[in-house]
């Protein structure tokens, strides 16, 4: 599998429920995430295929970068499917680990978000609340785990679980 084909093969595996092939493609994508997200095949992923990828703790890319590539995916699919960006991204944004971002990164994300409303404001408000209170109670556990490629940040010590 080449980088440019990783997303397409993974897409086929999810579409046709080929578990073994899906697992192998996911392992390839996990090991080469930074290259895969830059391909046309990544932009062509369906919601279910992208959700499968975003549920992984082993992606080798920083969360801030991953969020930008997923936003790009939503913009491409918005044009192709002639639907608004928020509608395209409504399912996948739930797998973005916004709590891993610093307040500075969140400020930048919020400014970007004003242009396209990719992420619902209540989700961003929930992250601001976490930063203000330094408590992670009530937050889905997987959203607090660092992915393999996520750079450590000072506030991660307030997360109850993270990738080691």
UniProtKB/TrEMBL annotation:
Pfam families: BACK. Gene3D superfamilies: 1.25.40.420. Residues 10-106 form the BACK domain. InterPro entries: BACK (IPR011705), BTBD19 (IPR042846). It comes from the Eukaryota. This is BACK domain-containing protein.
